[in-house]
Amino acid sequence: MNVQPWVIHPRHRYIPRPHTHREQRSASAPRALTTQQPLTTQQRHIGGAHLGSHDTRDSRTRDPDMQGQSASGSSAEQRSRRPESSGGLWDSVKKAAFVIGSGLFLMAAFRNSITWHLQKFWGASGDFWQKQWTNVYHLFGGNEWALFFVGTMVVPTLAFWLFNALFIVADLTGKPTFITRYRIQMDKNNPVDPVKLRQAVKKVLANQVFLSMPMVVVAYKVMRWHGNPCSLELPTFHWVLLELAISGLLEEIFFYYSHRLFHHPAIYKHVHKIHHEWTAPVGVVSLYAHPLEHVLSNMMPAVIGPLLLGSHLATTSLWFTIALLVTTVSHCGYHLPLLPSPEFHDFHHLKFNQCYGVLGVLDRLHGTDSVFRQTKSYDRHTLLLSLTPLNESIPDKPRKED
């Protein structure tokens, strides 16, 4: 016997709604073959107000100019999921601690190993790194400003462009395949538009020359005011590790909130929309931004740590280089083995209103990764330890045919 579903009449009388021909046909089908899942309580029509769930597929093609409205419109959904955020936040904190701790541990092991081998090979006596720093210092004739500029501007910038050169070749030519087979958005940038890429390169160079360089000058003045960043004595390696960890946490805080600020509807279309011209980012796009955003959201979160800590030039140079390489990986569009996962920020470029941070701790706290955690991208957001691309080992669900 067919049971008629009940609906609410405008005059509050319950009347049955007759089945359509299609509904009767589907109702007669065996239960085991039914693919439609039963509706939840929140998805029912109550008093004419539909409380349906958010359709993540629609948000993939959403106009970025409407993101401010969609972000506020989805706040109720995020609040409804807030009860699970306490445990999820702790998981995110543990993951961030594991990532930072593992990186520092590997760096310490690498440092000890390479120091031992270099000392054995060159026959250096005493502290190898201290001796090399002293040689570099005397090479510049005690010109601390020139030394600071080379360490904080020239060295990180060269590392940035050398690393990106490999990705630019892969993006333009589709080769080598041992890189391109790990592309995250397989239908994008295959190959990349050379005109669009050339525009991005010009913008990045302009930001580095006309904005990053002056900020380095200001940073030197500030650090000289309350310390000596080019001291002849190097800090201990354990202190360097501690400062790197603190700088990473400070970057997460300042980048998250400045990034969310630039997503405000009143600011986004004038400033941050430039960066989001790339819904499928490439490595060099990490610094492709409006000048205001480059200063406040790209540079300041990275600079604030060394400024507050009064870091030595060696630590600052190492931190700036790491920061530029990490943001390149986050934007490169390839989930390569043994490199940090770029799935988190790649998803941000795809969806616009998810995954604002670097480590993900504040996203979990504020619920701005709720959609991301329901996708296959979240399942792939891990360190790849095999040669099999995660798009193959964790494939997307096939789309249902209408």
Number of strands: 4
Give the integer mean of the pLDDT values.
80
The helix count comes to: 17
Strand percentage lies at: under 5%
Distance between the termini: 28 Å
Helix content: 55-70%
Strand order in the largest sheet: 1-2
Number of domains: 1
Can you tell me the residue ranges where pLDDT is under 50 for at least 5 consecutive residues? 1-86
**Rg, Cα atoms, Å:** 26 Å
Find the structural class using helix and strand composition: mainly alpha
Helix and strand run = EEHEEHHHHHHHHHHHHHHHH
Identify the quaternary structure here: single chain
Largest sheet: 2 strands, antiparallel
Envelope shape: globular
List the helices and strands and how they pair.
Elements: E1 6-8, E2 14-16, H1 21-27, E3 45-46, E4 49-50, H2 56-59, H3 67-73, H4 75-80, H5 85-122, H6 128-139, H7 144-173, H8 177-180, H9 194-225, H10 237-262, H11 265-268, H12 291-309, H13 313-331, H14 343-351, H15 361-366, H16 376-380, H17 390-393
